[in-house]
Amino acid sequence: MTEGPEIKKEPHHRTVRSKKELHGWWSGIEPYGMRECTSERLLINPYNGCEHDCFFCYAHAFPGHFAHFRKTGVITVFKDFDKAVEAQLNKLRVASCGYLSPVTDPFQPINEKYQLTEKIMEVFVRRNIPVEVVTKGVISEEAIKLLAMQEHSFAQLSILTLDETKRKWMMNGGASTEELLSNIERLSNEDIFTVCRVDPVLPYITSDEKELAELIGKVVDAGASHIITSCLDIPKAMAREIYDKIESKYGKETRRKYERLYVEKMSGRKHARIEYRRKLFGMIKEICRRKRVPVGLCMEFEKVVEAGNARFKGLNQEFMTSRNCEGINIPIYVRRSGDDEFSPVVGCNGNCLACYRSSEMAKCGIEDLKTAGAWKLRDYKRWGKMIDSKIKT
To answer: Is-contact 381 91, C-beta < 8 A?
Structure first.
């Protein structure tokens, strides 16, 4: 629920006050298997709408402020959202790594004005809670300092291609390919764990094996420690728009290839045929093996129908070469009664999906987390009542 928007003079954004809460992933592993995210995260979007404006972004199909951005180009900024996040964290005794941001870029240009990303990062770091950033923009020096201060904090850079002409065609903003590679070097120089997201791969456009090998080689040389990849999926509501965009650049034959390829439907989205995706991920896995870097997939599933019921099998079980899909083990953090700072749980590596598939007790002592569900702020509050008796720090 939000109060009425305060329209700023700048035409490209507006500020609103929001009561939205921190929360975990949108989907749990049960009942349909639609979760590939191995670890828990506290998801944070200080902005709705993104000036990078990737033409294939699934957030364009979202309602509310996202629909407003798609219609008007106006970014919604959640005024003083760092203070709202701080108030919520103050009520918690169990926390997972903060995630900036799952849907919109935390370092898009509007952040230079409001710096909500850095302010929220500081809220986490001051409490000794790790935080990660995911971006196609230029990471600020202040953000790098905050990441370097906090154990288990890390960064993810999305680099879809080394071809700057292709990159500019795919998005209206974002950092240049050279700036993105520089981001990795800057982070690596501070010993910050850095992931490169080749995510998504666009079939027939950025899927050439030689080009992918060159890209992965360059990001590894720059200091990336892990690769995440996926194959483009297409919200059904956006299919015609996306096909039109592809046809405008690559012609009718490429459009027809997409229409023949994208025939699998899962959770309101079109996916490339499973045979194509398996071949693509097998190729990328082999490239990563040669480059000596681990790889994980993001939200890639195979639809399995048994007795008339559909369930989804995560392809990370087949292609991931790391313990966690993001390449880094981040435990659940807790704080004892009266403590200001959180501490990592001893023996927890953050892989809730591994716990889900194991018969052993959850290392964190929170059996809910072992079920790899879709958690709300109220769940985190509830877990705080059990930590003194069950969790070791």
So the answer is: yes
Mind spelling out the 3-state secondary structure of 218-269? HHHHHCCCEEEEEECCEEHHHHHHHHHHHHHHHHHHHHHHHHHHEEEEECCE
The answer to whether 22 touches 88, Cβ cutoff 8 Å, is: yes
Could you give the CA distance from residue 306 to residue 315 in angstroms, rounded to a whole number? 18
* Structural domain boundaries, residue 184: 6-390
Q: How many CB atoms lie within 10 A of CB 190?
A: 14
Which positions ≥6 away from 260 have C-beta within 8 Å? none
Give the residue carrying structure tokens 């790889």.
Answer: 295
Residue 1 domain-assigned?
Answer: no
Which CATH number does the domain housing residue 77 bear? 3.20.20.70
**Number of domains present in the structure of the chain:** 1
**Would you give per-residue pLDDT tens digits along the chain (393 residues)?**
455 554 444 548 999 998 899 999 999 999 999 999 999 999 999 999 999 999 999 999 999 999 999 999 999 999 999 999 999 999 999 999 999 999 999 999 999 999 999 999 999 999 999 999 999 999 999 999 999 999 999 999 999 999 999 999 999 999 999 999 999 999 999 999 999 999 999 999 999 999 999 999 999 999 999 999 999 999 999 999 999 999 999 999 999 999 999 999 998 999 999 999 999 999 999 999 999 999 999 999 999 988 888 899 999 999 999 999 999 999 999 998 777 799 999 999 999 999 999 988 888 889 999 999 999 999 999 999 887 655 555
CB distance 393 to 95 below 8 Å:
no
Query: Alpha-carbon distance 385 to 127, whole Å?
Result: 19
Q: Is residue 297 part of a domain?
A: yes
Alpha carbon separation from 322 to 137, 223, 228, 313 (Å, rounded): 26, 17, 11, 18
